[in-house]
Design brief:
The chain is α/β, with parallel strands linked by helices. About 40% of the residues lie in helices and about 20% in strands. The protein is globular and about 60 Å long.
Length: about 475
């Protein structure tokens, strides 16, 4: 294969690499230059014009509605192999935070028990299927929405039901995601009693002013008190999310958030870049001038550097591009499994899972989900067959989540000469300051880590558009 090696004056790639989407991502042009990074500026802030997508490599062929059920039933009858997970979606939220793209169903107390009854029945209906019982489950994740909005008794019996009906490994990581609002000592203890061994709470920021502007309810002191209580229970890893680039957030306020995480002795922390979804509530509020401006890419890149340097200065263990752990209690099993496209059994309204490389999504409309489940039907509304390059996607997304890529391993997993395929691209990115290379090992620089989703997606799309030239 021949390809142009760009000079030091390579122009900035067009603003056409992928789309900001929760479902799919792919490059739209086939000109090789679109994948190249800018070489005449700061690679951290200027390598590309923008981020490509929320998640790289989300692609596949969607089956027609007529074929979904038969295909899904076939997948349930196939053995599950490798490390696997379970995802249970709790669609309820008391409020819709401005930045969130996942809100779906307002919480009502009377919905809690009925919903948990329905999800447990869904789990029991599949527990004897081959895809469920054939191998251990290594991670369970209650996500949302807001799982902690459920009533205490319902949280407890949902977790106990999962443990009873699913083949959890002895060391299975069981995560309850949530927020501090309405998550008091009774609910915390209910989760512990149910077997939860990890809490992931969306703090986003400790700053009360910014929290209120984003639709968060609890003040700084309430957040701190709740986290301290969880830590005193000493029965589970306690992890929080922090977001950089929020409207009105300064570098000083970001530093205060980082220092507060550290001072609380929490087990882990995710540092996430703010995503603004076109047409979403935050997008509308920004356009209307209802909130302070959010950080642009240059501003976000500085906050990213600040976050990484802080975590390094505190000797935190880096578990992924975005996640750090303080001690061995925090293992962060679920997220890397999902990045590597592991099998994931999905339950509940709006849940997404994968079996044998097929992504599937359960009906997200709460009322329709409940109606279909009352009829004994698993309401799978989307099922995507794996793309032809599924093995490549799995290898790239799984490895680059940790910031490194073993080309020899990827060649072994895909049967392709990936060094030959990617040499023009990797060489250009090295010149641009996005990565270092030693033999078969590729390691992302700080700038490469910031642009990791672009790099991963570009490698996937480069194969699609250039593999036939080898």
């Amino acid at each position: 294969m021949t390809a142009r090696t760009p000079s030091k004056t390579t122009s900035h790639p067009p603003n056409e690499i992928g789309k900001l989407s929760l479902i799919r991502s792919s490059a739209s042009q086939q000109d090789a230059a679109q994948y190249y990074a800018r070489e005449d500026g700061d690679p951290l802030s200027q390598a590309f014009e923008r981020k490509t997508a929320v998640h790289a490599g989300m692609s596949g062929n969607a089956l027609s509605s007529e074929d979904i059920d038969a295909t899904f039933q076939r997948l349930l009858d196939a053995k599950r192999t490798g490390k696997s997970a379970v995802y249970v979606h709790i669609p309820f939220c008391e409020t819709h935070c401005l930045y969130c793209g996942f809100y779906s169903t307002p919480y009502k107390k009377e919905r809690s028990a009925a919903y948990v009854d329905t999800v447990l029945a869904e789990i029991q209906a599949e527990k004897e299927r081959t895809a469920v019982k054939s191998a251990p489950i290594h991670a369970v994740y209650l996500g949302g929405g807001t799982p902690t909005s459920l009533e205490a008794d319902d949280l407890r019996r949902l977790l106990l039901g999962i443990r009873e009906h699913l083949p959890l490994a002895n060391d299975c990581e069981i995560t309850v995601e949530g927020r501090v609002f309405r998550f008091g000592p009774e609910k915390m203890q209910a989760c512990i009693d149910g077997g939860a061994n990890r809490f992931s709470l969306g703090v986003q920021t400790f700053d009360t002013r910014i929290r209120k502007s984003m639709g968060r309810i609890c003040e700084r002191s309430e957040v701190i008190n709740a986290l301290e209580h969880l830590m005193r229970l000493d029965n589970a890893a306690v992890v929080i999310d922090l977001i950089y680039g929020l409207p009105g957030q300064t570098a000083e306020e970001w530093e205060h958030d980082l220092k507060m995480f550290d001072s609380l002795g929490l087990d882990g922390c995710d540092l996430y870049q703010l995503n603004i979804f076109p047409g979403g509530k935050l997008d509308a509020a920004l356009k209307a001038g209802e909130v302070a401006p959010a950080a642009d890419i240059a501003g976000q890149s500085k906050l990213f550097r600040q976050g990484v340097e802080f975590m390094n200065s505190r000797r935190m263990r880096r578990l992924s591009i975005s996640h750090w752990g303080r001690s061995t209690r925090e293992r962060n099993i679920y997220n890397p499994l999902m990045k590597s496209r592991a099998n994931c059994l999905a339950y509940g309204a709006g849940a997404g899972g994968s079996l044998q490389g097929h992504f599937y999504f359960v009906q997200s409309n709460f009322e329709e989900y409940m109606t279909q489940r009352s009829k004994g039907r698993k309401p799978v509304v989307m099922l995507m067959e794996p793309p032809a390059n599924a093995a490549l996607i799995r290898s790239l997304t799984g490895q680059l989540e940790s910031g490194v890529l073993d080309l020899n391993r990827t060649s072994h997993e895909t049967g392709m000469a990936v060094d030959t395929l990617y040499s023009p691209l990797l060489n250009q990115w090295m010149h641009a300051g996005l990565l270092r290379r030693e033999g078969d090992w590729v390691e992302l620089t700080l700038a490469g880590q910031f642009w990791q989703v672009n790099i991963t997606q570009a490698l996937i799309d480069w194969h699609t558009n250039h593999a036939t030239e080898i």
